[in-house]
């Protein structure tokens, strides 16, 4: 997490404390505010938010302002919150303790989300990867980023993250480029097993998997992958960092991009045929 971001979070926490101490009906203690906020709130959570140890959500912020009798300040506070939450998260800092903590951070966002839109052009999405495919990815990225080698812990965390795929209350709308079916970022035998898994995921109630054929006409050129969580957060991974975006206009742009790419994708039997073709190409190699 960047120093600038942490300073902004601490400053916002101080603003939250000001609201608590300036309630129109008298200043509140952390315990009193937690009681007003209700289930899931404790004095400890109030303290973490006020001291910049934790980032408040937009829903929590609205409840906080109302509980402090200053609901009219919510819009201004929300603009301030969005201003510092859209930020670049350096891989160097995030991976200082290895890949496992990063996987756990992403897992928390998947747990919070009900509908997830995702796109990856050249790599099988992490949420759909087999353990061996994920192992190859983590090994290569650890080499690139010169980060601690916690490959097995990271693989286990990624596999645990995939439990959400079986939650009937969630929907995953995922697009992958046909290139992802053929990119040998792992051994051919590992990719063959990965393709078999993708094949078995087609038709699953919680997953809508589309494949964009290499020969498909495209209305826009696809770039890097991105993931949209409930239209409240977009994550975009680039070589030096990942970008977390939560301002409404940017999210709308990514959602339009996803729907535009979807127009070029095929589903069901047609997607299955592309996966099978990639598998046959591997067997001939």
How many domain modules? 2
What's the assembly state of these chains?
A: single chain
CATH class designation of the largest domain? Alpha Beta
Bulk shape:
elongated
Average residue-wise pLDDT:
92
Helix proportion of residues, in percent?
Answer: 40-55%
The neighbouring-strand order within the major sheet is 1-7-6-5-2-3-4
| CATH architecture classification of the largest domain | 2-Layer Sandwich
Structural class: alpha/beta
Q: Rg from C-alpha positions?
A: 22 Å
Give the CA-CA distance, first to last residue.
Answer: 43 Å
Poorly predicted segments: none
Q: Strand percentage, roughly?
A: 5-15%
The total count of strands amounts to 7
Topology pattern, helix = H, strand = E:
HHHHHEHHEHHEHEEEEHH
Helical stretch tally: 12
CATH topology of the largest domain: Endonuclease, Chain A
**Biggest sheet architecture:** 7 strands, mixed
How is this structure best described in words?
The chain has 285 residues and is an alpha/beta fold. It folds into two domains: 83 residues, 434 Repressor (Amino-terminal Domain) (Orthogonal Bundle), CATH 1.10.260; 197 residues, Endonuclease, Chain A (2-Layer Sandwich). The chain is 51% helix and 13% strand. α4 runs antiparallel to α5 and α8 packs across α9. β3, α10 and β4 form a beta-alpha-beta unit.
Describe, in short, the structure shown.
The chain is an alpha/beta fold and 285 residues long. Helices cover 51% and strands 13% of the residues. It has a seven-stranded mixed beta sheet, with helices on both faces.
């Amino acid at each position: 997490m960047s120093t600038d971001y942490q300073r902004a979070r601490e400053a916002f926490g101080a603003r939250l404390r000001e609201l608590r101490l300036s309630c129109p009906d008298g200043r509140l203690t952390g315990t009193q505010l937690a009681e007003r906020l209700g289930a899931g709130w404790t004095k400890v959570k109030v303290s973490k938010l006020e001291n910049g140890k934790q980032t408040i959500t937009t829903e929590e912020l609205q409840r906080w302002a109302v509980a402090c009798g200053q609901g009219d300040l919510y819009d201004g506070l929300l603009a301030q919150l969005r201003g510092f939450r859209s930020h670049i998260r350096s891989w160097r800092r995030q991976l200082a303790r290895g890949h496992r903590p990063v996987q756990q951070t992403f897992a928390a966002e998947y747990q919070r989300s009900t509908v997830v839109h995702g796109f990856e052009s050249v790599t099988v999405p992490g949420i759909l990867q087999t353990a061996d495919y994920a192992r190859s990815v983590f090994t290569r990225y650890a080499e690139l980023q010169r980060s601690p080698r916690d490959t097995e812990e990271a693989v286990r965390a990624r596999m645990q993250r995939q439990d959400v795929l079986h939650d009937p209350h969630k929907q995953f709308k995922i697009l992958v480029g046909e290139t992802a079916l053929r990119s040998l970022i792992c051994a051919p035998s590992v990719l063959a097993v990965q393709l078999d898994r993708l094949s078995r995921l087609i038709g699953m109630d919680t997953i809508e998997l589309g494949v964009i054929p290499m020969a498909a006409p495209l209305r826009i050129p696809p770039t890097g992958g991105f993931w949209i969580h409930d239209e409240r957060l977009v994550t975009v991974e680039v070589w030096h960092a990942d970008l977390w975006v939560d301002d409404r206009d940017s999210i709308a742009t990514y959602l339009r991009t996803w729907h535009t790419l979807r127009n070029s994708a095929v589903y069901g039997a047609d997607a299955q045929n592309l996966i099978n073709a990639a598998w046959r190409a591997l067997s001939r190699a």
